[in-house]
């Protein structure tokens, strides 16, 4: 919780006087509405008295010698009948007339309640809708004028949740909950008033007991919170294991550790399970205790109350009931008011962050009118001693005393290693940030003094990853300059070399570019972005790596477009590729945040500084790519093919998602997983059945009490009262046990089911092939959450669900049997109202959960606008388009706002209906009851019995439907779970599947392999790779990063299968080989070795999961890896914990553990993927020696960045862009004087 909460009334700071008036009237209505039920109790009391009097009269008149004269019972001889205590007996009660009157009263109260509750809800909800609308608009507008630095410190996701969830929370805190809270408080006060007016002694006795009920509820809440914490903690351990395993899935797969990991996960689930069961037991105990107290409270109340009625005659039977129920409903309402407080608290917490943003003054406000606009702009930019660091990382200096001049009309190129501050300069020119020291000037004016919207309108920018908005091509170009004509758009697109490809599209300029431009290829997006920059005819053109993301062909086209565009403008270009820089007028070299050199291409080459190193490195690379030019034609064609493919797959994947979500799992299948727990389920159902019969029994006893008062003989009355009170006590004790049994049994079976599902789910995840994990939907985070929540949600669909169903069925069944057994006519009348009462229960339950879901749906479209705006804030700021997005957002808010106002009416009508239906039911049934009493001699006790039995069962029905944990959610969660369990992995890792053979030699052959990663289908990684390694040979791959070296290793491990071609192992194609068998022959040491959070010995033993590795073998392996001495120097030796991801060890130590782990399996093939690149020279020597020993007698594939490490290899293969451009031994390749020779002689790193 945020502690400095806002005061509650500050939530209403956006209310106008109309809203305030609406809320005041609504509040008054709620206050009056609260008194409806207590008022009804007064009438109920009067009615009871009428019935009792009538019954006494009937008993007296049963004696033929008595008649009724002047409303007093007299003997037939005319003398007045006197009772033992000299009382005369009243008579002549006209029960039907009385009942008609009561029915009118009831109907009146019902109508009043209808009108009042309608008003209270309609007024509060519409007032809240109006305020929320205002908050949303203000908040979004405020966000859009924040400076960019603020966005660096606030994540996009967080802002989106605030716009949607937090404002919804504020809405909940100022809407219907307030009205309901006022109504419940008022019901509490009036209930107690009715009690005190009727009889203060009984009221005090009942009040005295009620704190026990509150105490039980409070203790239960506390205990549940603490235990849930414990359970979550215990599960967090298992979750951490799942997370660790899923994030290092490649290592787990390489060492076939799936089963071992499942066991480790399951061991940790056990603890969570025990806490879960404990929580179940405690909740069950408290629930039982609560019900027990309530029934004991009834026993005490009726026993003491009957004393007051019979012995001291302070109360009439009617007042007894009125007092008793007045106090009870009062207490109940007070209890029900507390959930509203929760809504208020979360609303205040949410408002804190929202209102803080609304109150914040932006450092650079883009909506201000202030600042100069220059008459004419030359375009000279200068940086004077600029110091700068980003607000999100204030301790890292980005620019350090930067002095720089960009002359107008010239093209200035910035070069330098990444992180040297080139892009930062571009952002400062656009004034996304202000420098901490120094200043940036345009034509000699400090840009802080210029109007910001005007300044940005002078600048055209093309970024590395251009952002397009989800609309048409022409709209995207028009964004940069409102009001441009179609001719100008066409002109700009011609200048950007985009015209031809746009005209080739079926819809031409009206083609939708897809969400953030996803339907376009990189080159197409770039050219649209250039057209967008050119259409505003900018004075200053900023090109931030505008061509880096493109392939050669598109680069040439885009480059040409840029060269055209640069003429006569001040241009700043940042690029990594030399071809793009050569033509610049001035080249500025950056290093560590300052400009270290400046001059033309030839001048800088002579200086041999930053620029020189970049040039030499790139030339080696370009020779290799010249070697490939003959194949580039084909590759371009393929690329185009890929473009169209990806857009298709994008369309289809959305469809699949939609399909997945709709189905829900059959309950029978979930129950199958719960089968071993059937005794618990049975026991729980028995408990539930007993609980269900409690309410009907209560109806019987309650009506019995009313009947006792009409017995003439006082001693008989006392005897019966005592009997009924003892029955109440017995019911209380029974319900304690049955509640406990139901709660405990279902908790136990539920926790066992959750654990089983989690284990099965985890197993299923580990069975999937690696490409499944590349899908962002299956990121380790997403999967661990799925294990945590889905499994526990599924539990909601089984045990407790069965309990709820049994309970309700029993309740309704018993009530109906009782009612129809005693009087079927009256039961029929009451039953007519039952659907309505049940419905009102359902409505009330629904209202508590609110209409939140519908709101969410309606808000989604506005949410898309806001999230697109926030995610692309830089582009929007660069185009000065904030206002347009604010307008768009406000337009999107209209439909949900209208819907919310309509909903206020509908909701209010339903609420009012639910509130008044019970009064109407009473009016009709008691009126008809009165008719049956006079005309058919029905005992009035039965009238009460039937009505209370059915009404109670009706409300129970409504309650049951509300208390069920979200059943639909559980079914969907289950469905997702079963989809996972039923998925058939593309690469089967079972022991039974595929070839095995005995004399594994270790010959490897790549035959014309092509491959693309499924997550990036448009980038081809391998293009026809072919190379052979004979058993015992060492093959070394060299080449720049991204050329496909590591991919070969992954194909060999069968993490992926090649798209075309095959990998042969001992002449067998790899996709036919048994996967565990193949992986057991391969040892792998990668660049960043993944260690698990256990001891050193366990990490080494992980190398062979097929058997238990003895300590001797571990020591043997670690000696070979030069690890043994280091381990023996540690206090715990081999039992030392390595920490999460091996964080307790240095890199060299981790590397050597990984080598020992690979040696333990005694593999025939050893894969070393840059195994020493991360080490310093000292550790590298040690590790290198260890590796050289490990290579003896094994087939080995080495990937290395340092050439010194691979000179001894049998075959060296130089790779570039997914194929091998030359291969041979070190000597052969040196003699060739081609790519490899260049690499060795310059001694450059290859990445």
From TrEMBL:
Repeat in keyword set: yes
Locations listed in the record: Cell membrane
Domain ABC transporter: 381-617, 1004-1242
Gene3D superfamilies noted in UniProt: ABC transporter type 1, transmembrane domain, P-loop containing nucleotide triphosphate hydrolases
Chief localization: membrane
A Pfam family hit: ABC_tran
GO-annotated cellular components: mitochondrial inner membrane; plasma membrane
CDD domains: ABC_6TM_Pgp_ABCB1_D1_like, ABC_6TM_Pgp_ABCB1_D2_like, ABC_MTABC3_MDL1_MDL2
GO molecular function terms listed in the Swiss-Prot or TrEMBL record: ABC-type oligopeptide transporter activity; ATP binding; ATP hydrolysis activity
Membrane topology classification: Multi-pass membrane protein
Domain ABC transmembrane type-1 as annotated: residue spans: 24-346, 682-969
Entry annotated with the keyword Lyase: no
Transmembrane segments: 20-44, 103-127, 178-198, 204-225, 281-303, 678-701, 721-747, 802-822, 906-925, 937-957
UniProt-listed PANTHER family: ATP-DEPENDENT PERMEASE MDL1, MITOCHONDRIAL, BILE SALT EXPORT PUMP
Protein name per its UniProtKB record: Bile salt export pump
Organism: Electrophorus electricus
Taxonomy of the source species: Eukaryota, Metazoa, Chordata, Craniata, Vertebrata
Gene: abcb11a
């Amino acid at each position: 919780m945020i502690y400095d909460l806002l005061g509650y009334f500050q939530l209403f700071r956006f209310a106008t006087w109309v809203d305030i008036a609406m809320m005041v009237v609504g509040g008054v209505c709620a206050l009056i509405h609260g008194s409806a039920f207590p008022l009804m109790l007064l009438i109920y009391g009067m009615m009871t008295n009428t019935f009792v009097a009538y019954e006494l009269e009937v008993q007296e008149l049963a004696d033929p010698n008595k008649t009724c004269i002047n409303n007093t019972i007299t003997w037939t001889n005319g003398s007045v009948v006197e009772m033992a205590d000299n009382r005369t007996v009243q008579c002549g009660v006209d029960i039907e007339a009385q009942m008609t009157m009561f029915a009118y009263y009831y109907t009146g109260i019902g109508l009043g309640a209808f009108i009042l509750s309608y008003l209270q809800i309609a007024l509060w909800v519409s007032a809240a809708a109006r305020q929320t609308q205002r908050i949303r608009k203000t908040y979004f507008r405020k966000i859009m004028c924040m400076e960019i630095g603020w966005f660096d410190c606030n994540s996009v996701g967080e802002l989106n949740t605030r716009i949607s969830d937090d404002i919804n929370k504020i809405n909940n805190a100022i809407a219907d909950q307030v009205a309901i809270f006022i109504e419940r408080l008022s019901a509490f006060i009036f209930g107690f008033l009715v009690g005190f007016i009727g009889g203060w002694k009984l009221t005090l006795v009942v009040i005295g007991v009620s704190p026990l009920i509150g105490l039980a509820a409070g203790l239960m809440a506390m205990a549940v919170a603490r235990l849930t914490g414990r359970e979550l903690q215990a599960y967090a351990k298992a979750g951490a294991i799942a997370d660790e395993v899923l994030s290092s899935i490649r290592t787990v797969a390489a060492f076939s550790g799936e089963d071992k990991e499942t066991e480790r996960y399951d061991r940790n689930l056990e603890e969570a399970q025990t806490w879960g069961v404990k929580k179940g037991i405690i909740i069950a105990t408290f629930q039982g205790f609560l019900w027990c107290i309530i029934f004991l409270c009834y026993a005490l109340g009726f026993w003491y109350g009957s004393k007051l009625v019979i012995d001291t005659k302070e109360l009439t039977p009617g007042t007894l009931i009125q007092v008793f129920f007045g106090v009870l409903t009062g207490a109940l309402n007070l209890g029900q008011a507390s959930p509203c407080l929760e809504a208020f608290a979360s609303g205040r917490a949410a408002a804190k962050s929202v209102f803080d943003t609304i109150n914040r003054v932006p450092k650079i406000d883009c909506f201000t009118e202030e600042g100069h606009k220059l008459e004419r702009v030359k375009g000279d930019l200068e940086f004077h001693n600029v110091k700068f660091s980003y607000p999100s990382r204030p301790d890292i200096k980005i620019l350090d005393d930067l002095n720089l001049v960009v002359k107008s009309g010239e093209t200035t190129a910035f070069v330098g290693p990444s992180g040297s501050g080139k892009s930062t300069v571009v952002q400062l020119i656009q004034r996304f940030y202000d420098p901490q020291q120094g200043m940036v000037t345009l034509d000699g004016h400090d840009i802080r003094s210029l109007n910001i919207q005007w300044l940005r309108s002078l600048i055209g920018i093309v970024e590395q990853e251009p952002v397009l908005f989800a609309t048409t091509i022409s709209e995207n170009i028009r964004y940069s300059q409102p009001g441009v004509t179609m001719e100008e758009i066409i002109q700009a697109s011609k200048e950007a070399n985009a015209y031809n490809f746009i005209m080739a599209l079926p819809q031409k300029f009206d083609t939708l570019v897809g969400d953030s431009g996803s339907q376009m290829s990189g080159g197409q997006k770039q050219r649209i972005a250039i057209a967008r920059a050119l259409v505003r005819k900018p004075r200053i053109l900023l090109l931030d790596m505008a061509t880096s993301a493109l392939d050669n062909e598109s680069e040439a086209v885009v480059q040409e477009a840029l060269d055209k565009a640069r003429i006569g403008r001040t241009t700043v270009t940042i690029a990594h590729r030399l071809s793009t820089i050569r033509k610049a007028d001035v080249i500025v070299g950056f290093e560590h945040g300052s400009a270290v050199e400046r001059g033309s291409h030839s001048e800088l080459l002579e200086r041999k500084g930053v620029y020189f190193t970049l040039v030499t490195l790139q030339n080696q690379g370009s020779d290799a790519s010249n070697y490939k030019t003959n194949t580039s034609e084909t590759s371009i064609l393929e690329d185009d093919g890929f473009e169209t493919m990806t857009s298709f797959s994008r369309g289809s994947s959305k469809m699949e998602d939609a399909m997945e979500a709709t189905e829900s799992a059959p309950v029978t299948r979930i129950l199958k997983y719960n089968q071993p727990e059937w005794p618990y389920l049975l026991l729980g159902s028995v408990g539930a059945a007993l609980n269900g019969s409690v309410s009907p029994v209560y109806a019987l006893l309650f009506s019995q009490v009313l009947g006792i008062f009409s017995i003439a003989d006082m001693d008989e009355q006392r005897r019966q009262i005592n009997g009924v009170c003892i029955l109440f006590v017995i019911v209380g004790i029974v319900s304690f046990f049955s509640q406990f049994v139901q709660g405990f049994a279902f908790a136990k079976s539920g926790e066992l089911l959750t654990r089983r599902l989690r284990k099965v789910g985890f197993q299923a995840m580990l069975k999937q092939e690696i490409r499944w994990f590349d899908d962002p939907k299956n990121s380790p985070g997403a999967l661990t959450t799925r294990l945590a929540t889905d499994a526990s949600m599924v539990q909601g669909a089984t045990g407790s669900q069965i309990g709820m169903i049994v309970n309700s069925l029993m309740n309704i069944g018993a009530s109906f049997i009782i009612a129809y057994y005693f009087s079927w006519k009256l039961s029929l009348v009451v039953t007519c109202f039952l659907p309505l009462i049940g419905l009102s229960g359902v409505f009330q339950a629904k209202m508590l959960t609110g209409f939140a879901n519908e709101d969410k749906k309606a808000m989604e479209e506005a949410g898309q606008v806001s999230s697109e705006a926030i995610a692309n804030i830089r582009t929007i700021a660069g185009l000065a388009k904030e206002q347009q997005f604010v307008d768009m957002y406000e337009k999107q808010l209209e439909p949900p706002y209208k819907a919310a106002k309509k909903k206020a009416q509908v909701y209010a009508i339903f609420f009012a209906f639910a509130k008044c239906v019970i009064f109407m039911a009473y009016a009709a049934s008691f009126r008809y009851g009165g008719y049956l009493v006079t005309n058919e001699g029905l005992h009035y006790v039965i009238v009460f019995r039937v009505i209370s039995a059915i009404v109670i069962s009706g409300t129970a029905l409504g309650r049951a439907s509300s208390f069920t944990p979200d059943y639909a959610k559980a079914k969907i969660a289950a469905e997702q779970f079963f989809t996972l369990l039923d998925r058939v992995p593309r690469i089967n890792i079972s022991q039974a599947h595929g070839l095995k053979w005995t004399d594994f030699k270790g010959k490897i052959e790549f035959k014309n392999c092509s491959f693309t990663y499924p997550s990036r289908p448009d980038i081809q990684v391998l293009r026809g790779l072919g190379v052979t390694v004979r058993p015992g040979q060492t093959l070394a791959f060299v080449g720049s990063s991204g050329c496909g070296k590591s991919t070969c290793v992954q194909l060999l491990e069968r993490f992926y299968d090649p798209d075309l071609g095959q990998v042969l192992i001992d002449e067998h194609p790899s996709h036919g080989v048994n996967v565990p068998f193949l992986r057991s022959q391969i040892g792998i040491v990668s660049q960043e070795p993944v260690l698990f959070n256990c001891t050193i010995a366990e990490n080494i033993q992980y190398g062979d999961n097929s058997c238990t590795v003895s300590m001797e073998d571990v020591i043997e392996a670690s000696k070979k890896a030069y690890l043994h001495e280091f381990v023996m120097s540690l206090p715990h030796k081999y039992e030392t914990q390595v920490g999460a991801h091996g964080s307790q060890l240095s890199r060299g130590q981790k590397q050597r553990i990984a080598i020992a782990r690979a040696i333990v399996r005694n593999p025939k093939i050893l894969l070393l993927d840059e195994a020493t690149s991360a080490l310093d020279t000292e550790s590298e020597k040690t590790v290198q020696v260890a590796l050289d020993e490990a290579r003896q007698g094994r087939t080995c594939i080495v990937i290395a960045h340092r050439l010194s490490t691979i000179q001894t290899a049998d075959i060296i293969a130089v790779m570039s862009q997914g194929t091998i451009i030359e291969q041979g031994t070190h000597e052969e390749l040196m003699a060739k004087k081609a790519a490899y020779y260049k690499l060795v002689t310059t001694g450059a790193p290859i990445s």
